[in-house]
Amino acid sequence: MKYSSNLLPVEKSTHGVAAVVIGGSAGALDVVRTVLKALPLSIAVPIAIVLHLPPRSADGLAQLLSADTALKVKQAEDKEPLQAGTIYIAPSGYHLLIESNHALALSVDLPVHYSRPAIDVLFESACDVYANRLLGILLSGASQDGAAGMHAIHEAGGITIVQEPTSAESSIMPASALALFDPTYILSAAQIASTLPSLITRATSHGLE
User: Fold this and answer.
1) What are 14's strand-pairing partners?
2) Helices 29-37 and 189-205, interaxial angle, to 10°?
3) pLDDT tens-digit series, residues 131-171
């Protein structure tokens, strides 16, 4: 199946961005590193990331990604208040959620799509809090995790970016999302990196915290 990239802004993207959530699995780590390298220090929103990785790799992920950006990168902690300009990484073995008071929560509830942390858990909880001020990014992966969460963000009027499946190391995850809805953008890794900073900057221009 051939997918065409959508580089045109749509009306829902003018709400401004208050938070960013990113999810991926097989093949997503290199994309995340590319994206983080493109983010300027002026980014004024929190970013939460769930990647399906083996436990040993996941535990050192924050340190690894810190080499790619001058922004603060840390492993998420339970009940930790979200801070603008900080990148939070889901620890292995825990679901990562965003609560209504804009704090993080960790959960050991049952795996979703055989994964804990699960992308859907983060995306859906963040959507409940931020609605149309949320930007979600779904990357390469070999499961359907994240598709339902992205659809929820779409339905709430948020911005959705799905990696173009033919550019993904594993196309199952992005293709599963595209089977549910038409996202705001369908982009390659390089396009995500070049487009994301300007989308997040709109948060400042709209006076959002």
Assistant:
1) none
2) 50
3) 999 999 999 999 999 999 999 999 999 999 999 999 999 99
Q: Is 52 a catalytic residue?
A: yes
DSSP of 38-57: T--TT--S-EEEEE---HHH
Residue 15 known to be catalytic: no
Task: Supply the DSSP symbol for 147.
Answer: H
pLDDT recorded at residue 97: 98
Q: Considering 52, 95, 151, 154, which one is annotated as catalytic?
A: 52
Instruction: State the burial class of residue 114 (Cβ atoms within 10 Å of its Cβ: 0-12, 13-18, 19+).
Output: exposed
The per-residue pLDDT for range 63-77, each reduced to its tens digit, is 999 999 999 999 999
Residue 52: what pLDDT?
A: 94
Helix (H) / strand (E) containing 20: strand 19-24
> Is 154 labeled as catalytic in the residue annotation?
no
Cβ count near 99 (within 10 Å)? 15
Run of H or E including 89: strand 86-89
Q: Which residues of 125-144 are buried (b: 16+ CB within 10 A; e: fewer)?
A: bbbebbbbbbbbbbbbbbbb
pTM for the full predicted model: 0.91
Catalytic choice (13, 92, 140, 145): 145
Peptide bond into 117 cis (omega under 30): yes
